[in-house]
């Protein structure tokens, strides 16, 4: 089952058909999502939030609760779905004192009431965090403290059960992340400030006297924290917006691996450039990194940070493991073409398939690990919105268009509901919608291939039926001066009577002699047959130019050949005993690389 949100509607789709009886919204929907266990589905309305049961074996038409909170913009569930956190638009209550209304509310679905409220003007990072069993909730307090609460039907948001506070009163943390697992820990990132290095601290909850692991480093304005599924190791992706060495426009990125046992490692990557994506395997025993300038490289590491395997370089920036960890999806989305590769992790990373999913803004594995959902959503793209479901073998099985689609996701389901795959099953019969879409795409590609491009014709000449001819500026000047075939206009001589014949120009002796020679030659050519044109008998050499425009490969080859010529000149200078600079010697040393690149482009000497 999947969910799709549109401006004023929400669809629940099961077995490629809409769920009957689902209580659809009647007004604008700003947010809609499933609880992490998939048992509750919530969506917003201007005056309330509606919670619908989606538990397996029950019809999805029962409204569990309606929360009387107006103008909700964002929602966040606890892991077991019991608590729903709601973010609403903040309202300034008193301008003089700067007091804002409580705009974050925590709803307890078991008690059917709001159990806590507080104020947070910023929508970024507003979500409270919960431990895996949802017994403890944590919230940020002015980026100086983290307040922990043992949640119940009646807990006081002003009286935290546990409290973490930074020892340095002048410091602030930027973000924190609670680990999954039975023994929760919390990772906290403190950015560098005033010459002091950045820090990542890990504490056991609720023991905050001494960190169980810490790492300090420079070049860290922001840091993304990612725990593995067991909560035993953490990936910290530190980044800066500016590269002090001026090597990269995108700033600098560094990756660190920290363990709850106190160990830490800096992950050394083979290539320079930004880190595009990091992700843990569901098994928690390995992780993958996409990094480097395009075409990027994707490398897999074990839990200790040792390199296991690297994929061939390609324009990719996204890595997604299937729920069982059997398959790995590596794709190039965003400003890339949308090519998707699927690899079999348990079969020595052999490639399963490659398919194209251009303009993708959402990509998810199904809970069973057999299908892939891709979608184009607003506001990233406001055209061609819709969803596609692919089999893991790369075949399209379902397609649906939407005028405007804001979000879409699979319904979360427990992993033990689906047995692991020993081998990939055969693709089921595609739905008619997928067949129609593929047929339409094939027809459009065929017509585009069959129709020649032709020469460019200006707009005023496209419907005239006349052949497209190019007219140079010189020809236009001549036509305007000596008469146009279209209107019979003539050149006007100043002082001449309008309508009178132009005066005869007296021909010089040299001009008359040349004219007679041309006429004699013309008469001779008309009597004797012209020989066959050499251009017609021999094919034109292939210049590598398509449609009058030099191809990218041709441009690259020309550039490389220019470099080779420069290197030959430098080698001659070197042979004659001239003293070369270091940069010139460096250019000579690159000759082998340039010749290899030329060979890869198909150029031969």
TrEMBL record:
Coiled coil: none
Segments forming domain Translation initiation factor beta propellor-like: 215-407
Region of interest called Disordered, as start-end residue ranges on this chain: 436-546
Protein name: Eukaryotic translation initiation factor 2A
Purpose: Functions in the early steps of protein synthesis of a small number of specific mRNAs. Acts by directing the binding of methionyl-tRNAi to 40S ribosomal subunits. In contrast to the eIF-2 complex, it binds methionyl-tRNAi to 40S subunits in a codon-dependent manner, whereas the eIF-2 complex binds methionyl-tRNAi to 40S subunits in a GTP-dependent manner.
Family recorded in the similarity comment: Belongs to the WD repeat EIF2A family.
Compositionally biased tracts (Polar residues): 466-484
Organism (species): Candidozyma duobushaemuli
Domain of life, source organism: Eukaryota
PANTHER family registered for this protein in UniProt: EUKARYOTIC TRANSLATION INITIATION FACTOR 2A
GO process terms (BP): regulation of translation
Molecular function terms, GO-annotated: mRNA binding; ribosome binding; translation initiation factor activity; tRNA binding
Keywords attached to this entry: Initiation factor, Protein biosynthesis, Repeat, Translation regulation, WD repeat
Segments of skewed composition (Low complexity): 526-542
GO annotations of cellular component type: cytosolic small ribosomal subunit
């Amino acid at each position: 089952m999947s969910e799709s949100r549109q401006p004023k509607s929400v669809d629940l789709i099961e077995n490629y058909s809409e769920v009957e009886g689902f209580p659809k919204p009647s007004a604008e929907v700003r947010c809609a999502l499933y609880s992490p266990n998939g048992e509750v589905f919530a969506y917003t309305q201007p005056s309330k939030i509606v919670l619908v049961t989606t538990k397996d074996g029950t019809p999805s038409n029962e409204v569990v609760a309606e929360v009387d909170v107006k103008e909700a913009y964002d929602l966040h569930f606890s892991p077991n779905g019991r608590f729903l956190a709601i973010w609403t638009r903040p309202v300034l209550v008193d301008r003089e004192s700067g007091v804002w209304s409580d705009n974050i509310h925590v709803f307890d679905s078991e008690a059917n009431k709001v159990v806590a409220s507080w104020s947070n003007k910023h929508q970024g990072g507003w979500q409270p965090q919960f431990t895996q069993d949802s017994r403890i909730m944590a919230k940020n307090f002015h980026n100086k403290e983290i307040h922990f609460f043992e949640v119940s039907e009646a807990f006081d948001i002003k009286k935290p059960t546990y409290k973490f506070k930074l020892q340095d009163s002048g410091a602030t943390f930027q973000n924190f992340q609670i680990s999954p697992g039975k023994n929760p820990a919390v990772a906290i990132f403190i950015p560098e400030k005033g010459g002091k290095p950045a820090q990542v601290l890990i504490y056991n909850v609720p023991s905050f006297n001494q960190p169980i692991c810490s790492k300090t480093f420079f070049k860290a304005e922001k840091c993304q924290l990612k725990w593995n599924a067991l909560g035993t190791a953490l990936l910290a992706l530190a980044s800066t917006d500016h590269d002090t060495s001026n090597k990269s426009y995108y700033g600098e990125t560094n990756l660190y691996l920290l363990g709850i046992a106190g160990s830490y490692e800096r992950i050394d990557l083979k290539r320079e450039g930004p880190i595009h994506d990091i992700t843990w395997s569901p098994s928690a025993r390995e992780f993958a990194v996409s990094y480097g300038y395009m075409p990027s490289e994707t490398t897999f590491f074990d839990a200790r940070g040792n390199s296991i395997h690297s994929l061939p370089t390609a324009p990719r920036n996204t890595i997604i493991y299937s729920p069982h960890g059997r398959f790995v999806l590596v794709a190039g989305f965003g400003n890339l073409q949308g090519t998707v590769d699927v690899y079999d992790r348990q079969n020595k990373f052999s490639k399963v398939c490659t398919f194209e999913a251009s303009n993708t803004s959402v990509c998810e594995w199904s809970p069973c690990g057999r299908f892939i959902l891709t979608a184009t959503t607003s506001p990233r793209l406001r055209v061609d919105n819709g969803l596609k479901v692919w089999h893991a073998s790369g075949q399209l099985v379902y397609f649906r268009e939407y005028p405007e689609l804001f979000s879409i996701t699979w319904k979360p389901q427990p992993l033990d509901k689906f047995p692991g795959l020993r081998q990939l099953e055969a693709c089921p019969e595609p739905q008619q919608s997928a067949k129609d879409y593929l047929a339409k795409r094939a027809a459009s590609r065929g017509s585009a291939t069959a129709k020649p491009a032709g020469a460019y014709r200006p707009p005023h000449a496209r419907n005239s039926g006349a052949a497209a001819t190019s007219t140079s500026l010189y020809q236009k000047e001549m036509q305007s001066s000596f008469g146009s075939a279209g209107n019979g206009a003539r050149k006007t001589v100043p002082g001449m009577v309008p309508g009178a014949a132009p005066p005869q120009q007296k021909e010089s002796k040299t001009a008359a002699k040349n004219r007679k020679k041309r006429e004699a030659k013309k008469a001779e050519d008309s009597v004797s047959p012209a020989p066959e044109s050499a251009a017609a008998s021999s094919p034109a050499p292939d210049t590598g130019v398509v449609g009058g425009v030099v191809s990218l490969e041709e441009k690259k080859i020309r550039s490389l050949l220019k470099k080779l010529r420069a290197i030959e000149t430098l080698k001659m200078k070197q042979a004659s005993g001239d003293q070369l600079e270091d940069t010139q010697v460096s250019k000579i040393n690159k000759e082998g690389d340039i010749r290899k690149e030329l060979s890869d482009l198909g150029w031969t000497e």
